[in-house]
């Protein structure tokens, strides 16, 4: 039995990992060190903790064996493994991104960045700031200007299952519906709100109704809710 | 390894702070996010706004986007521009409505590249007697459906006979040129050409030219050119036959014209498309019910390769309305079918869009989202 070449990796918190060289070489950074003959002793990785390093090694192991000609891992199986692997909490996800970047493991960087991109794409700016603890450094006037430049991009999408029937509405109008207003104010909802209980036709009527209500309020006349919106608000309140 | 240029704007959870200060990673993540979200994300913070508006980021986003092109279907409608984005599997993933086009009689979609589309007025309009009149000149609009920007080009020089145009993109991502062939005098055969550059924002005459491409009226729904890899290609009519292609006229971004001969005789049902970065001629032959697909390997010589030849599954060849290509697929729209031909395995797939949109002389083009501006 031939001996498999191994390298030793040391995490920032002193954990030691022994990995096969082929697995370690999934990291272009480590590959470079090995090829430059700098890998005889333990390779110190001061930017990666033991927990994260073990995850990275797991990823590399899975992806090295799949490129092995004897492996029977199909692309679909690998994708399924990736999906399960990346199901971690946000801080671990960010740590993985940093590690994948530092260690230059392209596949992992792709996977982690794509995962974060998918997570944030339907979030409102307020939710983004809350999620990542970003301070809004715009003045109210500046922020208003940015919003005005692309006002339509801030609209909330109400949709049922058929994507062609997505309705873009301004926040003020969506808030006319009490249920949606609560969802927005609790920062509970993304910029796309699915409404499975409501058909497109009814939704169209309700939105028309809300528009009239908002316009009437702006011109200070007495608005009245139509029956349609009353009916809708009730099932939505569930 | 990490850029530490920006000052800390986070108080807790160091992990995200580190991601943010490593702007290249933030750019990587954001470049995978749909454009509509990106436009809203500009209001997250000054750093995010600066990043999203930077030319490096725009280029990065475009690079990603170009790897996953979709199709855009445009059913011809009056006063309404609805574009339907599809992956090519019969499922509509997005409907985009362009605003600012309501008072225009009708728009024809000519071409699509790097997320920008070119529209012109439909070439005939009703006059006071409700008779259809062919337009000699038309408005040219460049638009970006992802950012909802629509830009009307300034009018070109007067023409006494019908004009022809073509759009070239590049070399920089936000540079495009529109070539316009026009006839200054009705009773002469003089053809002149002028070029609009997005950088200068104006037309510049380049003098007399020898050739004028086949008029848009005789091409499927007004699209008579394709831009591939640095050059625009148009069909030139055969001698004495205004609707059958006889050869190809090409021009590069430096305004050098060249004529390329066709590999074989073609009928009026011939189309030019971009197949993986090469000019491709898709020629359908009515009598044999066959389609030949040719690739031009070297645009400096008429060096064509016949990529494949196959039977067409549609019965009446007269009904082909439009053809477009994406990666190794060719999308055919006939008067009653949507078909995709896969060049790799020679298979035809019929797509069913049900009642997703009014099936009104639709055209299809390959499309990817981008942040490129239409006007500079």
Automatic annotation (TrEMBL), chain A:
It is found in: Nucleus. Residues 5-64, 166-214 form the SKP1 component POZ domain. The gene is ASK4_6. The keyword Nucleotidyltransferase does not apply. Involved in ubiquitination and subsequent proteasomal degradation of target proteins. Together with CUL1, RBX1 and a F-box protein, it forms a SCF E3 ubiquitin ligase complex. The functional specificity of this complex depends on the type of F-box protein. In the SCF complex, it serves as an adapter that links the F-box protein to CUL1. Belongs to the SKP1 family. This is Skp1-like protein 4. Its main location: nucleus. It comes from Quercus suber (Cork oak). Pathway: Protein modification; protein ubiquitination. One of its GO terms (biological process) is ubiquitin-dependent protein catabolic process. Signal peptide: none annotated. SMART domains: Skp1 (SM00512). Residues 106-153 form the SKP1 component dimerisation domain. CDD domains: BTB_POZ_SKP1 (cd18322). InterPro entries: SKP1, SKP1-like, SKP1-like_dim_sf, SKP1/BTB/POZ_sf, Skp1_comp_dimer, Skp1_comp_POZ.
From TrEMBL, chain B:
InterPro entries: F-box-assoc_dom_typ3, F-box-assoc_interact_dom, F-box-like_dom_sf, F-box_dom, Gal_Oxase/kelch_b-propeller, SCF_F-box_component. It comes from the Eukaryota. Residues 23-61 form the F-box domain. Gene3D superfamilies: 1.20.1280.50. It holds the Pfam family FBA_3. PANTHER family: BNACNNG10540D PROTEIN, F-BOX PROTEIN CPR30-LIKE. This is F-box protein. It comes from Quercus suber.
């Amino acid at each position: 039995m031939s001996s498999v070449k191994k390298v030793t990796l040391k995490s920032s918190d002193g954990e030691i990992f022994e990995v096969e060289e082929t697995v370690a070489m999934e990291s272009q950074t480590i590959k470079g060190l090995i090829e430059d003959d700098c890998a005889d002793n333990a390779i110190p990785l001061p930017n990666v903790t033991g927990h994260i390093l073990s995850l990275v090694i797991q990823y590399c192991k899975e992806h090295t064996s799949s490129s092995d000609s004897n492996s029977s891992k199909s692309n679909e199986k690998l994708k399924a493994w990736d999906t399960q692997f990346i199901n971690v909490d946000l801080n671990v996800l960010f740590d993985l991104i940093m590690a994948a970047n530092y260690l230059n493991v392209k596949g992992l960087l792709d996977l982690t960045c794509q995962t974060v991109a998918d997570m944030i794409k339907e979030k409102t700016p307020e939710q983004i700031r809350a999620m990542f603890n970003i301070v809004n450094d715009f003045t109210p006037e500046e922020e208003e200007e940015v919003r005005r430049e692309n006002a339509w991009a801030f609209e909330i999408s109400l949709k049922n299952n058929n994507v062609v029937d997505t309705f873009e509405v301004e926040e003020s109008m969506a808030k006319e519906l009490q249920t949606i207003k609560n969802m927005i104010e609790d920062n509970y909802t993304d910029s796309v709100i699915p409404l499975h209980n409501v058909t497109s036709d009814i939704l169209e009527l309700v939105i028309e109704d809300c528009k009239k209500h908002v316009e009437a309020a702006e011109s200070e006349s007495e608005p009245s809710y139509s029956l349609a919106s009353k009916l809708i608000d009730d099932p939505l309140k569930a | 390894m990490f850029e530490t240029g920006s000052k800390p704007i986070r108080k807790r959870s160091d992990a995200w702070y580190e991601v943010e200060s490593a702007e290249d990673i933030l750019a990587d993540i954001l470049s995978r996010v749909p454009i509509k979200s990106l436009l809203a994300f500009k209001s997250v913070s000054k750093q995010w706004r600066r990043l999203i508006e930077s030319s490096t980021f725009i280029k990065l986003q475009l690079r990603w986007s170009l790897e996953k092109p979709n199709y855009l279907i445009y059913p011809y409608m009056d006063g309404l521009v609805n574009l339907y984005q599809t992956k090519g599997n019969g499922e509509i993933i997005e409907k985009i409505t362009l605003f600012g086009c309501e008072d225009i009689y009708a728009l024809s979609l000519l071409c699509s590249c790097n997320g920008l589309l070119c529209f012109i007025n439909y070439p005939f309009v009703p006059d006071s007697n409700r008779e259809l009149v062919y337009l000699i000149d038309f408005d040219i609009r460049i638009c970006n459906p992802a950012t909802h920007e629509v830009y009307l080009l300034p009018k070109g020089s007067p023409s006494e006979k019908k004009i022809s145009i073509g759009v070239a993109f590049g070399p920089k991502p936000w540079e495009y040129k529109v070539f316009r062939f026009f006839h200054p005098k009705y009773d002469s055969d003089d053809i002149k050409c002028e070029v609009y550059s997005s950088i200068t924002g104006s037309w510049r005459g380049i003098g007399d030219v020898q050739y004028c491409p086949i008029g848009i009226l005789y091409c499927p729904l007004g699209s008579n050119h394709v831009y591939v890899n640095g050059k625009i290609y148009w069909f030139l009519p055969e001698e004495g036959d205004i609707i059958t292609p006889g050869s190809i006229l090409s021009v590069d971004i430096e305004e050098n014209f060249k004529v390329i001969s066709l590999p074989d005789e073609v009928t009026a049902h011939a189309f030019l498309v971009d197949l993986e970065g090469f000019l491709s001629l898709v020629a359908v032959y009515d009598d044999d019910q066959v389609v030949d697909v040719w690739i031009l390997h070297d645009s400096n010589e008429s060096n064509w390769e016949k990529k494949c030849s196959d039977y067409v599954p549609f019965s009446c060849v007269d009904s082909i309305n439009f053809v477009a290509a994406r990666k190794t697929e060719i999308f055919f729209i006939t008067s009653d079918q949507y078909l995709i031909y896969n060049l790799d395995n020679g298979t035809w797939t019929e797509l069913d869009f049900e009642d997703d949109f009014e099936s009104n002389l639709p055209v299809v083009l390959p499309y990817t989202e981008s942040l490129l501006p239409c006007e500079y």
